[in-house]
Amino acid sequence: MKISLLMNFSVDKKNKQIIVEKEFAAPLSKVWSAWTESQLLDQWWAPKPWKAKTKKMDFKEGGSWLYAMVGPEGQEHWAKAEFKSVQPSKRFSAQDAFCDKDGNIDTTMPVGFWKVEFQKVSHSTVVSIEIKYDELADLEKIMETGFKEGFTAALENLDKLISQP
Cis (ω within 30 of 0) for the bond into 49? Predict the structure, then answer.
């Protein structure tokens, strides 16, 4: 019997935010590691056939993650997450922005402010994600990029990764 796991994706235009809740059939420690260690992030963060490639990561308050989404023809789209707060195994927050390969922020693209929370629920872990934008137009621009489909596919990659023994 397959257990149905929670997966909610909603867009709150009034508050200019995306809210995602996803349940994983894995212990909190394993899910936390998958979100905070670059060698694991690289295995699930990009929707297939794309791949994530970390250039550098320093997961701590004031640290950052500079990575590329690499397409099947080798095209690269760079992004940088700057970690604002970290409470190990509980939550972290970050500012996420498009950038060049050296980490210089692309000011023509929206910046998202992520809050990611982890909660142990019986035999699984629920991750609650809130991504806030300064302007409604920024939220809409991100949604037009296919964010919902891409992020949902990436979370499915994570499901597969953490279900491995």
Answer: yes
